Structure formats: structure tokens, C-alpha cells
Amino acid sequence: MLDAVVKRILQARVYDVAVETPLEPARLLSKRLRHTVLMKREDLQPVLSFKCRGAYNAIAHLSASELERGVICASAGNHAQGVALAARTLGIKGVIVMPQTTPDIKVNAVRNLGGQVVLHGDSYDDAYAHARELMDEKGYAFIHPFDDPLVIAGQGTVALEILRQHRGDIDAVFIPVGGGGLLAGMAAYIKYVRPSVKVIAVEAEDSACFAAAFKAGRRVVLPSVGLFADGVAVKQIGKHTFDIARHCVDEVITCSTDEICAAIKDIYDENRSICEPSGALSLAGLKKYAEARDSRGETLVAINSGANMNFDRLRHIAERTELGERREAVFAVTIPEQPGAFKAFCQAIGKRNVTEFNYRYSDSQAAHVFVGIALGGGASERQSVQDGLLRKGYAVVDLSDDEMAKLHGRHLVGGHAGLADERLFRFEFPERPGALMAFLTQLGTQWNISLFHYRNHGAAYGRVLVGLQLGERTLPELRASLDAVGYPYIDESRNPAYHLFLR
């Protein structure tokens, strides 16, 4: 099987649009991790990601009659730009179907490359179905973002370059995974040419479709995926890609949103490039791997796979970076409601820097404060801070891994309502005009909204926190109404931050 894949990689046509990107040392990280860290700079491609390789290779192998009819794809991200660039380079028609929720920066980038953009639906699945309809109607050739042997071969040229650029030993290569095109192509080539090199797949922990398939020994469909690393937000890995990757991958690592944010900052510190979340995923996995091992002096390679970052997302990323590096922890701490209590609390913390302190009067007995504390020693120091406060008699809840507290709670501290029949839900709304009205219309007038918090994060979906009162109705009735809305949600009614600061 690998013979055929590697042959296609060696015959791939990519350099009409792609460039051979450098393999650069990450000097700051190498010193910190005590390994040699190398970064493959696919963020320097003409479309700022590796996707132009596979797209062009697939299109360049079409017949003359297929090229004359044109090509179509469904994509909200980098594949769209790769197809548009390939179509322009070959002088053919390129139709790109994108969800209506796609950020303007990505829509405009495709149009600037000559792609004919069709906006349809609220999700990739909607766009994909419409692209297939147009393919049947117009006779376009469909260019799949990952599950195509020629796309896989084009992406595999990244590995070909790495092994040519670094002739010395390589201990492990970390490859980001969405649908698996880059993973399958690179893993096949690496294991064929230098089988001693470890191939480690890296996924966002809330969209780990390959990890689930790798464990099960077959492809599985995730019920939902997180959207922060939208470039790898895929519910099911491809058939062709899984058939290859399952035999060539040594290990799978999953990373949290905070760990990805920290990797984005690391890349910026190294070379002043701002990678998108999926573009920094590989480095996040490399760091997690290195920090969990006792060995030193290995040569580790990360793929900076893309830099199509919406500027509006930087605020959210900056907020989460310190948590991702474990240089900050956030706690809910209960202190006495009396003069001098805050000063005594600060003395209990010692000389550590307080990065955030949120509080509003609640009652005359106890005060619940949301506090951020700067750390220097990682997870062990975080535990030490908590243990020290507990020994001094404070009630402490660690919120450092609580998504609701970090996304919403810290901005709402002090809003106690005392509503016994309130239930709290965290939603993902499509980021488009009318999304809120559609939510309210579907929900109807039988439920009173008691809390609403939304912040734009520059992504295709907005994060929304909603409080709803049951009144005379039951919780199953409320859940049925929310299910009918159709937006993904999580019940946060038992969240400790909610009970301490909002309930």
C-alpha cells in the first residue's frame, strides 16, 4: 500500500503554486524544552497554508474535458483558497461553496484569488451537500479537502521536503489532524523512507475523530466537534486517510484550547508569525509530548500548517495563553465579608502576582471572589497555591479548566439573582445576522430569559451563555424546546462558578 502512496507523492505536481518552505530551528523553545525543535513553515505558502499542495495536485491530474467544465469544492477555510489559487493558475473555473457563517476575511481571500464564491447554509455539511448538487447539475469536478489519493499525495510532499532538508536524526514528527490528508500523506512517506522516525498525530481534544478511530480500529462519527480550531473541526476522518494513517501513526496526542493558544504565542515569540489555531496545533502537541518525558536532546519537528487568522480572535487567544502555558491559574475563593479581608487574602497568596480579581457584594457573611494568580512552576505550583489557601482556612475551587468560567463567568461576577427556578446553558450560535432572532423565535414566549452573555471571538460560531426560568413548566419541557432550536448546547446548571457568582 505504501509503495503506491509514495509513488504518487514523488510524482505530485505542487510547485506551480506551492513553494518549498523552510525548516527553521525554534531556538527559544529548544532551550526551554531541552530538545532540538524544528518548525516546518507551511504558513509561508502563497495561501498561508499547506492546502494549496493537495488541491493543485488533484486538479492538475484532471482530464482536459474535466478542466474545461471547471472544479468545485466545499470549504470554509484553507482548502477553499488552495482550490481558488489552483483554478486561477490553470485558467479554469473554480466554484467554492462556503457556509454563510464563514468570516469575511476568508470569503474575501477566496474572491481575491479569483474563486467564484457561493454562500450556502450554516455549516460545512450544508455547504458540502449544495456543492454536490451543483456538481451534478453543472458537471464540475469535485475536489475533496482531504479524502482523495491525489490530495493526500500533494500534502505528502511536506514530508518529502523535511527529510531532504534535515539529513540528521529526527526522533518524532508532529502532524495536525482534521480529515487526515496531511497526516496520511506525510506519515506514509516518513514510514516508507525513514521508519525509525515516530509519527505523532495531534488533534484538538474536542474534535479528536482520529483518536477515536485509532482506538476503535475503525472510523467513528463524533456527535459534535469544538470550533475553536476550526481548520481541524471534522466529525469523521476520511476513509482513504484512515486506511493509510492507522498503519503509519505511532501515537495520538490531544490538546486543549488553552494549550493551542499557548502554542500560538510560542510561534509568535519565535518568528513573529501568527498562526491560526489549527496551524499551531502541531506545536501544542510537541510541547505536551516533550514536557511529559524525561528524555532530553531529541530532534522534534512541528508543522506550522496555517496562518489564516481572523484578527478579532486575538483577544480571546491572548486571554487564554497564560492558562495554556500554566503560568496562570484562576480560582473561586470564599473570604469573609469584613474590612481587611482582601488584604489578608493577598497576604495569604504571598508575593505572587494577582492577574485578575473580580468581586461584588453578595451578603454580609461571605464574599466569593474570582481571582487569577500568576504562576512560575506550572501545574505543581497551581496545586501548591490551592493547598496553601486551603490550609489558611479558605474555601477554594480551581476554575482553571472550567470553560464556562473562563468564557463567561469572569465577565459576569457579582450578578447574583437568587432565582431558584433558573437553569443555565452554554450555546454555540452561528455567527450570522438573524441567529439570535431565530433562537428567540424557536424558543417561543413560554420561557423567561434571566441571563444572556455573548462575546464575539472572531470565529464562525459565537459562544453564548443563557439563563432560562422554568416557571410552571418542567426541565424536560425546557430541554425539548432547546433541542428544537438546533444550536449545540451544554447544561451548565451545576457549574460551581455559576453557583458561587451568578445563582
Q: Strand share of the residues?
A: 15-25%
Can you identify the CATH class of the largest domain?
Alpha Beta
The portion of residues assigned to helices is 40-55%
CATH architectural category of the largest domain = 3-Layer(aba) Sandwich
Number of helices: 20
User: Structural class, from secondary structure content?
Assistant: alpha/beta
CATH topology of the largest domain: Rossmann fold
The gyration radius over C-alpha positions equals: 25 Å
User: How far from one another are the termini?
Assistant: 59 Å
Order of strands across the widest beta sheet? 1-2-10-7-8-9
Domains counted in the coordinates: how many?
4
The largest β sheet comes out as:
6 strands, mixed
Could you list the spans in which at least 5 consecutive residues all have pLDDT below 50?
Answer: none
The average pLDDT score comes to 89
In short:
The protein has 503 residues and is an alpha/beta fold. The chain is 42% helix and 20% strand. Strands 1-2-10-7-8-9 form a 6-stranded mixed β-sheet, with helices on both faces. A 4-stranded parallel β-sheet has the order 5-4-3-6, with helices on both faces.
